[in-house]
Amino acid sequence: MYNKNNKLLTKSRHVSLSHWGAFKAEVEAGQLVSAYPLCGSGADAEMIGAIPELVYSSKRVNQPFVREGWLKNRGNFNGVNRGYDRMVPISWQEVLLLVSDELARVRDIYGYKSIFAGSYGWSSAGRFHHARTQTRRFFGAFGGFTDQYSNYSWGAAQVLLQHILGTADAVSGGATSWSSIAESTDVFVAFGGLAEKNWRVTSGGAGNHHMTRHIREAARRGTKFVIVSPVADDIPSGLLADWIAPRPGSDTAILLGLCHEMIKRGRADKRFLAKYCTGSEEFQNYLMGVGDGIVKSLSWASKISNVSLQSLKILSDKISTGRVMLTASWSLQRAHRGEQPYWALIALASILGQVGLPGGGFSFGYGSLNAVGEGAYKGLVPSLSNLGNPGGTAIPVARFADMLERPNETVDFNGAKITYPDVKLIYWAGGNPFHHAQDLFRLSKLWAKPETVIVHEQFWTTTAERADIVLPATTSFERNDIGGTSRDPHVFFMPKIIEPVASARNDFDIYSDLASMLGFQDAFTEKRSEMDWLSYLWKKSENQAHLLGIQAPNFRQLVEQNFWRIPKPPEPEILLEDFIRDPEANALPTPSGKIELNSETIGSYSYADIKSHPYWQTPKEWIGSAHEDEIALLSRQPQKFLHSQLNQTSLAKRYPPTVVINSAEAKKRRLMDNQVVTLRSRAGACLATLKISENCRDGVAIMETGHKFIGGESGIDMGGNANALTSDFPTSSLSQASAAQSCLITILPAENSNP
After folding, report:
1. Active site residue 120
2. Annotated catalytic residue: which of 120, 152, 300, 343?
């Protein structure tokens, strides 16, 4: 930081934002020396405190690198050597020339669709330097590319909800406010739990981390909580909640059983079903066994879920009276047939007839992300527009490996047919596919197929190590930006806290130079600099605030004051309230204008793996039909880092990382606490350190994601990455989304597990 006389200040303080919260940073002599949560924000002090260590990590990419084998044999690629060849340092001028020439070469020979431009949304809390947006914008101006549809977080829900509710807003942004829940909810039932660790992070960052306080306020008023999860620590600390621990993947059966029980008791709200829903008769016929002869009773659900019939009857009693809020975590739909628990939950809420009422109905994600239900005006966080994809195509994000394995194959997706392109060049900026993809040993083999892999990266991740060209990218703390999320009542100006480390450059500048070399710089930049863009984008937010009757600061004021706390809406958000108030004037954008409990559109696709209404079918890799030595693996977000971010710091304390089972499962396998074990699945194997805990039910193992994949010829990942174990089959033909939570493994002492 410099003063008016352009002299370096020895000490300075700054307010900024990360995905794990707002913070103050201290800089001395140009070096970031400390970071701590913004007062009152509730952000995690350990995660925020690790920012300086992250920025100056020895794992930073400090200059451009090119794989020696690729450099020597351009045009005669050998992708098998990715990750093994020496990486050669070169200058920015040289590397940009190599990248621009290679993009032009592949485009001219193979066409736009042969270039896969990958990215993911968690690379930056700042919205301008959002790598996925910058990447899409660059390749749109380039003329086209193969893009990704949806995301790993809630890909199945995104597709399904567009058919059932008309939009995906119920998972992507909308949720009944905690203030409404605290005031009106009698029973809150959370399928998939309310994991406190997930409240430490928000896509885009947040100024409030108050989910624990919201739950305690609701509990003090009298809201009763029921947590339906195989894991007890999905119950927030200090909350007296009933715990129901089903087999993983059986939530749909429980929800269908509850639907049947409410109808059987005469609890179904027939007026609501007739006025606001379509297809309830077809769905009720299914519940009664018409067609398959199986009544979807509580007794039926009890056998599938391995939950006592008495526990399910008690749950039925709880939801049969009073105001009931039903919710499901994002993780439930990341499983085989992952659309079904969301659809069945909406059906149960509709049968209860409380959708759109204060504190009632359904919402998704309270246990998946900070700030869900916080209550904030939407549309005030700026975003950069893309430039289309005129010559390109898109595939479902989770089908990336299938695309590499089976180019030119045509598959079903959401009522259409998509043909996988023959990708010759992978360009990845902002993301780490060797973290979030499944079956990483398979991906590792397929990664050798393209002729060139180019990566923008801050750290030497597995993806960067297996690239041909690596361009060093800045962190959020080395550039100016505007950050926030529509779920949180804050927008932050994120100042450049320090100059870029080593020779790192931001994605916008990299793409600007490449666009200049390829002849479309003005189309990409619109002749705006970084600060020009931020001022331009903020003006749109000012205009939106004006439409809402809110006085927003101008850009100069935002920069000076660092952040703006947006006034709370006058009324708490209640999901689908407008539709319930006037279903004709506010009809849902579904074919019927109503909630679709039976979707004729989905039925018309004639997919073998999904029906026109919620239903139960045994998932793949299902613990109910597992071999005696197999156990269900649930892979979940880590306690103290975000995906693979912050794994480069001392917060990743244990190696190999922990896998948790209960004492009964450990005794059965003659395993001891803190023992190093090998986990093995149909996909691969990895090392882990065993932790014995009664926090999880029988038949379940819990492992955190985010650890580095260090897979080799042995077939055992030495880094302890859970996705070395997860299979890469889709949820269904409808959404083709990730099914990572459907996974069976065996656990053996490491020395007794042969490759």
Report:
1. yes
2. 120
